[in-house]
Design a protein that fits this description.
CATH class of the largest domain: Mainly Alpha
Helix content: 55-70%
CATH topology of the largest domain: Helix Hairpins
Strand content: 5-15%
Distance between the termini: 53 Å
Number of domains: 2
Largest sheet: 10 strands, antiparallel
Structural class: alpha+beta
Shape: rod-shaped
């Protein structure tokens, strides 16, 4: 697509330049019909202006599309990174979920154990209460009562051992109750701590899931917006290219119309050749400078010489061969081998050109009179010494100047 656009742009630019030069060359021809000439010129200028504006718009749109492509590429990279992060978080969530499930199972077991311990503690407390009631109701036997009530030493020993066992059992009941109570408190605290950790982990994981989901949704929405914008820009660019093609067709049509007007305005009598010694020739031209012809028209050094070279000193004034309008004024940097170069349109398809000037004495678009100084002889461009390269052209084609001087 870029190569095609460049070819189209180069072609249209070449057409526009050709029309500019061709339009200038026929100004006098169109002067014979002022209204038609003005209309054609205005249409040509309008078409050229629209074409340039269209090319500018196309360039701006192409740059804008490039920027959007860069932004979309960046967002796609961010989306890929977020998706990778989402997958990592998903694995982390799965691991955390497995841990939570294990913790919940442990909590369930602890709760069951707590219920069992609480049951045992309840039964132990009941037993302890009953024992205390019995002790309160029956009283605790002391050593004097045991001695008085005992018949002999063996009975005394047996009774003492029995009482010791009862006391030991009572102490065991008390210790068991105390142990169960402490175990119940520890289990309850552990259960509360585990439950708090589980809830905190669930909250963190839920927040992370929401964060990733929101980021992914935002990026996807932005990417969708940019894709839609790119499609809109591309549609606009396509319309602009169609407009450029249409303007190019208009320019070509105007070029054909101008060529037809040149043909209609051309008069064989105005182009009749025939040298005249001194003054104005039968073709209406005068010599631009007075000097010796150092190179003639036609084949030269394996190429074609489209004019004549007149050897004169540098700085010699150059006179316009006939009245007309300056339609081409190029510096050495623009024209290349011709150096400083001027062309004058004389009407009827006739024009003259003057090359290798050292200095201009007129301006582009200026009306000049026959014999008016338009520049000075020089040695610019592809030149072996000071001289004037002089051309006569009909419909843009070079003619032998000697046939018109």
């Amino acid at each position: 697509m870029p190569a095609e656009n460049n070819r189209r742009t180069s072609t249209l630019a070449a057409i526009a330049f050709a029309l500019l030069f061709g339009g200038m060359l026929i100004v006098s021809a169109l002067d014979s019909s002022p209204v038609a000439g003005a209309t054609t010129r205005s249409r040509l200028e309008s078409a050229r202006a629209k074409l340039e504006k269209t090319e500018d718009r196309k360039g701006v749109l192409t740059t804008t599309l490039s920027r959007f492509d860069e932004r979309i590429a960046g967002l796609e990279g961010r989306t890929a990174a977020l998706r990778e992060r989402e997958a990592a978080v998903g694995e982390e969530l799965a691991s955390r979920q497995a841990e939570l499930e294990g913790a919940e199972a442990a909590v369930a077991q602890a709760r069951h154990q707590l219920e069992v311990v609480r049951g045992r503690l309840k039964r132990a407390l009941i037993a302890l209460r009953d024992r205390l009631v019995a002790i309160y109701e029956n009283g605790s036997p002391d050593i004097v009562s045991i001695l008085v009530s005992s018949g002999d030493m063996s009975e005394l020993a047996a009774t003492s051992e029995y009482i010791a066992r009862i006391q030991s059992a009572d102490e065991a009941v008390v210790d068991h109750v105390r142990t169960l109570r402490d175990q119940t408190e520890r289990t309850t605290l552990s259960l509360e701590h585990a439950s708090g950790q589980i809830e905190a982990a669930r909250d963190q994981i839920a927040a992370r899931q929401d964060e990733v989901a929101q980021a992914r949704s935002s990026v996807e929405a932005r990417q969708g917006e940019l894709v839609a914008t790119r499609a809109d820009r591309q549609s606009t660019l396509d319309r602009v290219e169609v407009e450029a093609d249409n303007f190019g067709a208009d320019v070509q049509a105007l070029q054909r119309k101008i060529a037809e007007k040149i043909t209609q305005a051309s008069s064989p009598a105005a182009l009749s050749a025939g040298p005249t010694a001194g003054g104005v020739s039968s073709s209406g031209l005068i010599w631009p400078v007075e000097g010796v012809i150092t190179s003639g028209f036609g084949p030269r050094w394996g190429s074609f010489h489209p004019g004549i070279d007149i050897g004169v000193p540098e700085g010699t004034p150059i006179k316009a061969a006939a009245s007309g309008t300056v339609v081409l004024l190029q510096s050495e940097a623009e024209s290349g081998g011709y150096g400083n170069y001027t062309c004058i349109d004389h009407g009827g398809g006739l024009s003259t050109c003057y090359a290798h000037q050292t200095e201009f004495a007129t301006s582009l678009g200026a009306s000049v009179s026959q014999g008016e100084v338009i520049g000075y002889v020089g040695n610019t461009g592809y030149s072996t010494g000071p001289h004037l390269h002089f051309e006569v052209r009909v419909e843009g084609e070079p003619q032998d100047p000697l046939g018109y001087l």
